[in-house]
Design brief:
This protein is mainly α. It contains seven helices and two strands. Keywords: Membrane, Transmembrane, Transmembrane helix.
């Protein structure tokens, strides 16, 4: 049970203790016979729960909150790195700027059309002009899996929903070693047959993005310096670096 639920129960127990100790309302007045024993029972249980709650709050909850302040920015950093890392594949497929929106998510038919143009043995644009698409896929696969392992190393601080998304990504065909476009032995001259594999995987990437924006973005932004180096397009596919205030 989360701290909110525990706190509600603690408040209820505290109310019982206050009523019994500091008001004229007594359970024996309401229940004939064994009212006094019943009152003592719920009073004892309430006191015991309050003592346990205080111990948990001071020795477990506050300690975990302190740990989270240090660990959550690291988790957030790895999560956004996974998102950006995979988004670079879409940018390469579309041959669009590297700072394109992370919300760019092609449909399956759009993936099929994009992948129809990809010969895995031909050089990939943008990132590795002298390396084939297979190298790009393998590179992004390896770095994604490494970052997932780093997140899992955070142990109990990994949210269950986040863990499920990452496990699904980890076990996907897209990240399977030596699978199709991840293999040096890929004989296809186009990847359109794998449009569903791409679509399902990047659907998980979008789930990860939504989770990040809802739960982790604030921790990542707190860890950033006030001034950032930002790539700004200047035309003709060229960029310049500008120093910008993060808070603007």
């Amino acid at each position: 049970m989360k701290i909110k639920g525990l706190s509600i129960i603690a408040a209820f127990c505290l109310a019982i203790v206050i009523i019994i100790d500091f008001t004229s309302l007594k359970i024996p007045q309401l229940i004939d016979g064994k009212g006094a024993k019943f009152e003592m029972l719920i009073y004892t249980l309430s006191i015991s729960y309050l003592a346990s709650y205080i111990f948990y709050f001071l020795n477990v909850y506050l300690k975990e909150k302190q740990e989270q302040k240090a660990i959550f920015p690291l988790i957030a950093s790895n999560v956004i790195s996974i998102i950006v890392n995979n988004q670079s594949i879409i940018n390469a497929l579309k041959n669009q700027p590297i700072n394109s929106s992370l919300r760019d998510f092609p449909t399956q038919s759009e993936f099929k059309e994009l992948l129809q143009k990809v010969d895995p043995k031909q050089n990939a644009p943008m990132f590795y002009k002298d390396k084939p698409w297979i190298y790009l896929f393998q590179n992004r696969r390896d770095s994604t899996l490494k970052m997932i392992e780093k997140i899992f190393a955070s142990g109990k601080h990994v949210d269950d929903d986040l863990r499920v998304i990452l496990l699904k990504m980890q076990s996907s065909l897209y990240l399977r070693e030596d699978y199709a476009f991840n293999s040096d032995n890929c004989e296809k001259d186009t990847l359109s047959d794998y449009s569903l594999v791409f679509y399902k995987y990047f659907e998980l990437v979008q789930e990860l993005r939504v989770f990040y924006e809802k739960n982790l973005k604030k921790y990542y932004e707190r860890s950033l310096p006030d001034k950032l180096n930002v790539l700004v397009p200047v035309g003709d596919g060229k960029f310049k670096i500008e120093i910008q205030d993060r808070k603007k």
